[in-house]
Amino acid sequence: MLQAITLLLLPALLFGDFYRSEEPLFALNEGVQPLAEGYYGNGFDSTLSFTREGDHYHLAGRAWPATVALIPIDGSPGLYLFQQSDGDHDAFYGLLRLIPDKPGFALFAADCSKPTDRHIAEVEGGLAEPYGNLVACTFDSRDGVISALTMLANKATNDDWQVYHRL
Asked: What proportion of the chain, given as a percentage, has pLDDT over 70?
């Protein structure tokens, strides 16, 4: 289960905990594919490969599970809910923001160990609970996870987003 140290969550897991659901809240066919296939790096220690597979992406690199759906956020062009799952069980959530005029993106992940992130999750219907030796904020509502993440991201600084450029 803790194998779920994902691309999206890697920054959050190094410093804290994350947002998840017990099964994917979004169907893969609800996603879009705004990223070009290929390799992306963060300039430090992480290189990822995105490959289109039907209506979603397959992710390779320091990532598991490998199925990714990017769900457009209404009213926010270039901003997507990032759902990473194994298809039927655990799903993990963050936001992906395209970098204007450059082939790349930035990722934002909530940290459920922070009181503010945990409180916003709870207000939006999430439940803070143990996940191995970590604490996850577990959602069962699509609107809840989107609302919580967008609220946090609107208050985030650039340092809270992990930037990946096309290699």
From this structure: 87
